[in-house]
Design goal:
CATH topology: D-Maltodextrin-Binding Protein, domain 2
Strand order of the largest sheet: 2-1-3
Order of helices and strands: HHEHEHEEEEEH
CATH superfamily: Periplasmic binding protein-like II
Shape: globular
Distance between the termini: 35 Å
Number of domains: 1
Number of helices: 5
CATH class: Alpha Beta
Structural class: alpha/beta
Helix content: 25-40%
Length: 156
Amino acid sequence: MRLALASAAVAAVALTGCGMQIPADPEGTLDRVRGDVLRVGATEHRPFVELDGAGEPTGSEAALVQAFAERLDADIAWETGSEAELADALEQGELDLVIGGFLDDTPWSEFGAATRPYLEAPAADGTVEKHVMLAPLGENAFLVELETFLHEETGR
């Protein structure tokens, strides 16, 4: 046990000494987005995301994303499509975030990292639905920034 603790302490000091930030974004998502463009995929799932023609998505998740972009001083480049199309684009690095009323048991979690649930809502069958957003896998600094924002906004 002592050896494990000592090894962890040495590793922490070594990582601090080499200038590595934890959490990190291997692809630099947070740094690239900050002050520039947040690429967001949206699929319709009312009332969370509503797509009404040529305008930008609306709904509660779209509003949260707009506030998150403002926090990062970023503009939003919206892309709409099916869950499958957007999950693939996220996995390919073409999107930074995907929204669409996703739940914590989403089958798309192999394509993107699900946030912690930011909203719990009652379902028609009496269960509770836990809503999440999808971010790029491994981009942990971006995910932490998003989850911190969601917690501040929703209290979850």
